[in-house]
Every structure is written in structure tokens, then in C-alpha cells.
UniProtKB/TrEMBL annotation:
<keyword id="KW-1133">Transmembrane helix</keyword>
<feature type="region of interest" description="Disordered">
    <location>
        <begin position="40"/>
        <end position="74"/>
    </location>
</feature>
<feature type="transmembrane region" description="Helical">
    <location>
        <begin position="12"/>
        <end position="35"/>
    </location>
</feature>
<keyword id="KW-0812">Transmembrane</keyword>
<protein>
    <recommendedName>
        <fullName>BNR repeat protein</fullName>
    </recommendedName>
</protein>
<feature type="compositionally biased region" description="Low complexity">
    <location>
        <begin position="60"/>
        <end position="74"/>
    </location>
</feature>
<keyword id="KW-0472">Membrane</keyword>
Amino acid sequence: MRGGFSTGTGRSRIAAIVAVVVLAAIVGVLAVFALQSTRGGAPAGETMSPAPTFTFGDRTSPNASPTQTSAPATAAADERFLAIEGDTMWRATAGQCGGAAPVVEMSTDAGSTWRNLTPADARQVLGLSTFDGNGEVIAATGDTCEPTALRTYTAGVAWESYPDVLAGSTYASPADPASIIVSGSPVAAPCAEPRSVRTSRGVVGTVCNNTAYAYLDNTWSELTTDAIALDAVSGAVVVAHTSPDCLTGVTVTRYTGTEPTPEGCIPDAAPTTPAALSVLGPDTVLWTADALLRPTP
């Protein structure tokens, strides 16, 4: 046949040429993608942006329980003391040697009215108690702030010094704030400035940096955090402290050794103000702000 190639042969050649063209196009496309990949995936002339971040808003549950504010550490001059015995009550603000004057008061009507009976020579109150309605104050006295045990049997008309009482007393040392005097001997406190130093039957309690401690077997043992005041009675330490069990006030817990026994909630107590706690038998009273408050079961 003239004409150069047969019809079958021509079709085969055309198909081959088309396949080559298609293959070349595919290779070209792949090459472009590969080039863009090695350049970080951004087209020429564009700057890569960081991956976006997202804010999902406040994830706090709208029904979350309220939290309490921990009490700030009480300044030395603002420390409080309270001693109750029926309708007779004694209370004091500590004051400080070289600073604010202390105030010692007595009430014979369960706290409805008070009389200022501060000993004239007192510069700082270190301890306070009552017996048969009479008052006993451990105070730093005179220009040297010498610790002295003072008692009155005349409702504050006269105060007398009792060295033998001082020898058996427990109080924070005015000369060395990091020491607690226990029956005449210094004991290193668990912090630099202990507050609410109380004792009963050889057990000593204190609040240090808002943590309550008990001195047991010559060792300080932590009782609870967020403490605002404590008292020692019948060989136990009773602590007023904040806790989830009493969100609108403070919880009262008795510690025998380090074993806790809840004693109720004081719902209206302000945990951010200086306070003093006094326990006598079944009666527990917290002096905070201008109120005398008792726990509810």
C-alpha cells in the first residue's frame, strides 16, 4: 500500500504519542507540588502564618461552690485574748511594747457591757485567764517589758504580781518572738511570730502563719491550716478555722492529740479579722469584730 504506513500502524502511533503527552503533564504537576512542599507549603509571595489559637471562654461551672478568703496573719498589737466563765468574761487586745497600748476589759453581763481594767504598768498582754470571776494577765510590764503575772481579786481596782504564777505560765516571749516560754523554759516556735499561744494539762497550742499546731511529746504537730484562733482546754486544742464545711463563717474543731472532732460552725464569723476563742465546758465563744459568737451543730 502506498502512503507510508498502514491504518492500524498509524493509530498505534497516535495512541503512543497521546500517552506520552499525558504522562508528561502528570510529571509536571507532581513536580510543582513537590517544589511547593519543599518551600513550606506557601505559594510564592505569601508569608506563612502561625497556627490559629482559640479561646473557649470561662470554663468554670456556673454552679461552682463559693470559696473562702484565708485570714491574713494577725499583727502582734492586734492579737486578741478571751476568757469566759458564765456571765463573767475577760477580754484583751495585746498592744505591743513600744507601740500601741494594750486594753484589758471585764464584763459581768455576758458581754453586753464592758469596763476597761487595764493594769497601769502593762505594755503588752501575753496571756489572759479567769478563775472564780477574777482576772489573771501575763503582761510585759514597765520600760523593760519584763514578763509579769498579774492578778486582781478586786475587779481591777488593784493588780498584784505573782512570780510563782509566772514560773508555771506559757506565753510568747516578748524578747524573742520566735520562742514560746513553757513553764519558764524557752521552746522554739514553729514560726517566727506565733499567735494564740494557749496551754492545758501540758498541751500547748499556737497559730503560726494561719496554721494551728500542738506541742506534743516535745514536737510541734500540725493540726489544720487556715486557722484564725484557738484555745486549749482539758488537754485538747480547739481551733476556729475556715473550711468547706462552713462557707459563710468558720468551723470549730477539737483536737485530742492530732485527732479531729468537729464541734460545729459559726456562720456569721468574719475569718479575715483578728479573733480570740474561749472554751469552758460545753460553752465555746469566738470574739471577732465587735461580736461574741457561738457555734451551731
